[in-house]
Specification:
4 helices, 5-stranded antiparallel sheet, two-stranded antiparallel ribbon, 7 strands, 184 residues, alpha+beta, Peptide Deformylase
Length: 184
């Protein structure tokens, strides 16, 4: 892998990498650990609470998340159990300025590896469950706009056109990127 981790930038809707199925990581290396650390810094700098590797142009199954209770660095995460239901308004660092209320499972169990290839089983609920589901969606090429209702689609169409003219999230003005409390 020849990714220069010092140049990672958040990609916005319209970049083809966001719609690709991320590849599983076969062997976790120092480069993966560097990517995870850089992704965490980028997530914090953007005031986000989750970030998936495709959002920084890397089509690999890697995510970071922190809802304020500690940083998760997960490799090859997958949801193995879901229960309950909740709807939380979500934003996305790759779709600045758009917030959608999305119905997801209230409780989930995630299996993954940490940055040192140790197996993890995480039981998550409420906000953490939402963040993991959102980021794992990114690994499947799915984004919050895919959940938009027929009622929401006309409201976001204009914003999506604006995003297509912008190459990365940093080019959008601050007010447009912070319109939603949860930036994932």
């Amino acid at each position: 892998m020849s990714t220069n981790v010092t140049t990672l930038r958040i990609k916005v809707l319209g970049d083809p990498v966001l719609r690709k199925q991320a590849q599983a990581v076969k062997r976790i290396t120092d480069t993966h650990r560097q990517i995870l650390s850089q992704m965490a810094r980028l997530m914090y700098d953007a005031q986000g609470i989750g970030l998936a590797a495709p959002q920084v142009g890397i089509s690999q199954a890697i995510i970071v998340a922190d809802i304020g209770s500690g940083l998760y660095k997960l490799v090859n995460p997958r949801i193995v159990k879901k229960s309950g239901s909740q709807a939380i308004e979500e934003g996305c660092l790759s779709v600045p300025g758009i917030c959608l209320k999305i119905k997801r499972a209230k409780r989930i169990v995630v299996e993954a590896q940490d940055e040192f290839a140790n197996s993890l089983v995480i039981e998550a609920e409420d906000l953490l469950a939402t963040v993991f589901q959102h980021e794992i969606d990114h690994l499947k090429g799915k984004m919050i706009v895919d959940y938009a209702s027929l009622w929401d689609k006309p409201k976001i169409k204009k914003k999506l056109k604006e995003l297509k003219r912008v190459s990365d999230a940093e080019e959008l003005c601050e007010s447009k990127t912070k319109s939603c409390k949860l930036q994932l």
